[in-house]
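Lecture 7, part 2: worked example. A protein chain together with protoporphyrin IX containing FE.
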Amino acid sequence: MQKIKLWDLPTRLFHWLLVAAIAALFVTGKVGGNYMVWHGKLGILVVGLVVFRLVWGFVGSTYARFWQFFPSPARILAYLRGQWHGEGHNPLGALSVFALLTLAGAQATLGLFTTDDIAFSAPLFPLIEAELAGRLTGFHHQLANVLLVFIGLHVASIVFYARVKKNNLLLPMLTGWKNVEQGESARGGGIVALALALTLAALALYAASGQWIPEPPPPPPAEEAPVFNF
Ligand code: HEM
Ligand code: HEM
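Predicted complex, written out as structure tokens:
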């Protein structure tokens, strides 16, 4: 057995920040009221996290790169026949990784256009018609349930791998290291790559925050009521 570096620190930080943010988003979304302000901020954070991970999938270290675990039909077939041997996300796990990233990104993007019809309107709400915002808010509710199902499947499969397959996936996601029979440590994903991913994530945060939207012009002064002198 040898010890290899599997998940780099940015990938692990991304994962656990995403978990914490989404957990808090479900709580604040359901409680509503004053918590909507936090819901909005955390949702915007998810936009930044997902954009970070998308960039990191191209410039990050070996096992974080999308091409390394892209679930092509050939790879999935080989995995199902028990002929896949490798480290990192297996082809089925990779399907769930892409599904979770897509769902989290879509849910956060939809959220940017929603309103709770009480006191909270999302930052990009002013860009669309109220009727469309109402429909997107409906999708936001529905997609939250779909996301929840995928999170359940994700956690169940981690437990399945640990209990049945005796393969502890959790420890490497915490420490970065994994004991394997044969394999190489992750390489790449240096400081320049990190700076690029952080810059693009910061731009996404700015875009999602809606701060670039010009203030609406002040309403014209109300016409003075005519004064009648009788
Ligand atoms: C991945 C990120 C997000 C998740 C998981 C999430 C989840 C949720 C959940 C579970 C609800 C409650 C739905 C229900 O009661 O059935 C909700 C409501 C809501 N969310 Fe999000 N949300 C996310 C991102 C955002 C963002 C970025 C915004 C805005 C900046 C936002 C704005 C809202 C609003 C306004 C509501 C209330 C809608 C209503 O009262 O009808 N969400 N969200
Ligand atoms: C909000 C809930 C969660 C979401 C949205 C989520 C999302 C993800 C994503 C996107 C990845 C891919 C990581 C990457 O390549 O960047 C991943 C991997 C992983 N997640 Fe989660 N996760 C959630 C909850 C959890 C929980 C609660 C656990 C612990 C039981 C967990 C354990 C793992 C592990 C061990 C991996 C690596 C799997 C592998 O080795 O192939 N996740 N998760």
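Helices lie at 9-31, 36-59, 66-69, 73-80, 91-111, 130-163, 170-175, 191-209. The first helix runs from residue 9 to 31. Keep this in mind for problem set question 3.
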